[in-house]
Amino acid sequence: MQSVWAKPVAAYSALGIRLSSHVRVTANITIGHETSGKPVEFDIEELLATRLLVQGNSGSGKSHLLRRLLEESAGMVQQVVIDPEGDFPSLAEEFGHVVIDGAAYSPPEIEALARRIREHRASVVLDLDGLEVEQQIRCAAQFLSALFDAPREHWYPALVVVDEAQMFAPAAAGEMAEDTRRMTLSAMTNLMCRGRKRGLAGIVATQRLAKLAKNVAAEASNFLMGRTFLDIDMVRAADLLGMERRQAERIRELERGHFLALGPAITRLPVACKIGPVKTGHQARSEGLMALPDTAPEDMADLLTRDLASDVAKAPPPPAPPPAPRLEEMEDSIAHAEERQVEAPAEKPDNSAVAQRIEELIGELAGEEGIAFQSASAQYQTFLTRCRRERLIGPMPDMHTFRRRFAIAGAGLAELGEDLQARIMHLASAVDDDLLGPFLVIAKAAHAGETQVDEDELARAYGTSSPGRIRRLLDHLARQGLIVVREDFGGGRTVMVPDLEGLPAE
């Protein structure tokens, strides 16, 4: 299957755009600044793989944050916005987004539009402001499901922003129909849990974490937490940020437009961030007080009631809604949207050189002192950080693949040659990821004819300094039938790997 990272290059070629060898793509945008003035950056490539959750009470600046994120990344990646309040159509004039009025189309047409959006990689705003709440939910659910079910050849990377996500993924049934609730929960769960392999990166914003379905919120790895006052929401936000509960009060004291940020696409430690300015949208109204008019009460009453009946008679009838554009016109608009949005074409990466450098980085990481004592997630985040530091653009190994390659490098299996390495890995196919490193150390020693395993080396591979854990590890591998352990009366231990005797030395 073609990698989603290579598909934008193919799309440029299909449009007749020649890729310059001198153009370098940066995946970082600045979302705001810390109190010290240091910029807070977002790695958009990492965001595509790890998703984002935004929380904040009404008036905390969530929509401003989302607009800043969309504006700064508009030239990098396709964007799809689910907009229940009509806040984001202003993106169209400045950045070329196609605005789709959800009230103007039937359910089958909404699904057809979603399929065409994925095919043509158009950035769109689905404006649901003209619909009742339950119709908004059903329209968004069908639209998201169609995006998710697009053909494999259209799995291009895209940010999918869902504002007011507690409407579309409620923690409780509320007043909506049960079939509507099941439909929207399924669509949102697919977006957040399974969308990554289809190139869809969910960005959900909610006023209250307690109202958002937990299986949707739990899939986000990046967090921007704004001002909130209820204890239950503060505690959940503090837990997600890795803060102690006594520090949760800090979330209540945040000013408008200030957020606490954490995640692999932003920062590995929580930082306070003030969101930067935006180009589109309405200017914020003044929050100060204004003096009331000094009109006398009787004069004010006269102003309000004078000629009221004639005013009503002269009022023009409300204008008829404009006709919805035909699907053919919308298809043409979507098909040409990418041409308006593309800025600088990207340099086609050398995938073979990238893959070789990734293997070198894994080997360097596996050889570092003390790295095996870190958790697997910490090792993986360190690896991804070094890849970003070197601006490696291309398909990255997922956590499972990384852990197995890390174990191979740590055990030094590369010294045995590719053929023997492949046969040993075949024997290790049933070994769990967290036990693969020590098993490969044992297998390598057994192949060399050694029956006494170096327990210090085994401890390093397992990430422990406890002799008891080593004994339990060997007992567990023996119960699984992966090794045979024999102990003599003197306490000596002989370890063998079944079926390894048939592998010739090289």
TrEMBL record:
Q: Which domain of life is it from?
A: Bacteria
Where in the numbering of this chain does the AAA+ ATPase domain appear?
A: 48-238
Q: Which Gene3D superfamilies does UniProt cross-reference here?
A: P-loop containing nucleotide triphosphate hydrolases
Pfam families membership: DUF87
Listed SUPFAM superfamilies:
P-loop containing nucleoside triphosphate hydrolases (SSF52540)
**PANTHER family, sorted:** HELICASE MJ1565-RELATED
User: Which protein is depicted?
Assistant: AAA+ ATPase domain-containing protein
